[in-house]
Amino acid sequence: MSHPHRPRSNLGRTLERASGHITRWSGSSWAFALAVLTIAVWLVTGPLFGFSDTWQLVINTGTTVVTFLMVFLIQRAQNKESLAVQLKLNEIVAALEGASNRLIDIENLSEAELNVIHRHYHKLAEIAKHESDIRRSHSIEEARHRSRAGHKSHPRASHGPHDAGASCEPPATRGADANGHVPEDSSRRESTQ
Q1: Measured between alpha carbons, how far is 180 from 178 in angstroms, rounded to an integer?
Q2: What tens digit of pLDDT does each residue of 37-51 get?
Q3: Are the C-beta atoms of residues 122 and 144 closer than 8 Å to each other?
């Protein structure tokens, strides 16, 4: 039985392997040396061809084709890397007690939703500037609660009730409670033990 997330066709698997090998090789010193050597050979042959239009067309066409293909390879590698980093960060946020689960899968939010969360973190930075204890930690919910209450400091543990009609409320995560925390999945708990 094949892995559910691998490409199902032989062509898909072959393309995935080939693009992975080419991406790794193109970032190597050998690839750079080959590119420099190609340019050097092209420059040396210039006088032999009288620096003709055809001579210039060869390097222009070659570099255009290579650049065109590399754009897709780089984008593929960047997509894979970005997804891996996001999954690792999601795992860290999900595992940390007290972390806001609203940040899990945050890369899929709209730009407006990201700006709302950015404003909350800006509030946290403002609170921290006026805080006498530089080791004190604050949450998004606390920043909103403090700004509404006009308090200068609250311990993090005191999360009072929040009114639901806040204009700067970050978008809630599916399945989250009023504080944005998602209950831990029991199957996940069992699989990690």
Answers
A1: 6
A2: 999 999 999 999 999
A3: no
The rounded distance, in Å, linking the Cα atoms of 93 and 102 is 9
How far is residue 91's CA from residue 54's CA, in Å, rounded to a whole number? 55
Kindly tell me if the per-residue pLDDT of 182 is higher than 50: no
Structure-token pair, residue 43: 């420059």
DSSP string, 36-76: HHHHHHHHHTTTTTTT-HHHHHHHHHHHHHHHHHHHHHHHH
Which pLDDT belongs to residue 60? Answer: 96
Q: Looking up tokens 């930690």, which residue turns up?
A: 137
* Closest to 122 measured CA to CA, from 138, 100, 105, 134: 138
Q: Is the pTM of this model over 0.85?
A: no
Q: What is the DSSP string of 130-148?
A: T-S-TT----HHHHHHHHH
